Amino acid sequence: MIISRTPLRVSFCGGGTDIDEFSMTESSGGRVVSAAINKYVYVTMNKRFDDRIRISYSSMEDVDSVSQIQHGLVREALRLTGIESGVEITTIADIPGRGTGLGSSSSVTVGLLNAMHSFQGRDPSKEQLAEEACKIEIEIMGAPIGRQDQYAASFGGINSIRFGDGGVIVEPIEIENDFLSNISSNFTLVFTGMTRSASEVLSEESEDEQDKSSRMRMIREHADKAAIMFQNGDLDSIGGLLNETWNAKRGISSLITNPFIDELHGKVMTSGAKGAKLLGAGNGGFLLVYGDDGLRETLRGKLGSEFRMFPLDIDFSGSVIIHGNS
To answer: What φ, ψ does residue 312 adopt, rounded to 5°?
Structure first.
């Protein structure tokens, strides 16, 4: 049996500039500052006694051939890795469901590829996993998404990731242990209770393309600032930058926010947060909140138990095989 473990991610600044439409046309390219977190997607693969293919996720499939598989990511990962029959595959996640803003679909794709390559006796590089995941999601399946999630899930850690016509460059940001502890203490993930389709949000046409372009360039500049702030250990400035990037982002599309999210953001800020932004494409998922030590308990009291929340703890391993015996 093969078991892969692949982290989810949070994006501090630069989200959206990793989409080819922006990164391939802007002279500066795209840039995202993000971190893999210790919430994971697990993929198990085992050889079957017959030639059928069984897949278990939120649904269950038991089919005769790869072409009959309904789960697109599983189907295309099997095709890419050359597995044709006789396997059982399961996916399990610490935070189930899509549309959380944590890059779960790409984590599933990277985890599938890692498990399948290992099942075939191969040891792919982190760059290969990310590139192949992008190929499946963007080129083969046509999802209108960017390339940051696949690289964050594959590499792990806190990174500045650049995108452009020259490819993708991952630049790890080295941090001290004390700084890592402060990240966990001062950043909180708050679940809005809502999920949405990232593709639906990203596919909406902007009513003002000039305004959208201006906002996207501003978000790109925020990523430059965030990289320097992380290198300098300046968490307070990063926290404040979350509000700036959220204000820039929320005007890009009418689907990015809604009255409920705006009200929740307001409650978070009046509770003492120094910055907060919605993660992912928007209109649901998790808020990333920054504030002084103790803010988390204040939020629990003010928001109530229906809002799930947890600290931001970093994963530095990326996608790994935690059990392998094909």
So the answer is: -90, 100
Do the domains at 2-175+315-324 and 178-311 have one common CATH topology?
A: no
Enumerate the H helices of the chain as residue ranges.
20-23, 72-81, 104-119, 126-134, 148-155, 177-186, 198-203, 209-232, 235-250, 259-270, 295-303
What is the CATH class of 2-175+315-324? alpha beta
189 near 312, Cβ under 8 Å?
yes
CATH number of 178-311: 3.30.70.890
Q: What is the DSSP letter of 144?
A: -
- State pLDDT tens for residues 174-217: 988 889 999 999 999 999 988 765 545 445 555 678 888 899 99
pLDDT digit string, tens, across residues 107-117: 999 999 999 99
CB atoms within 10 A of CB 85: 14
Instruction: Give the up-direction half-sphere exposure of residue 36: CA atoms within 13 A in the CB hemisphere.
Output: 28
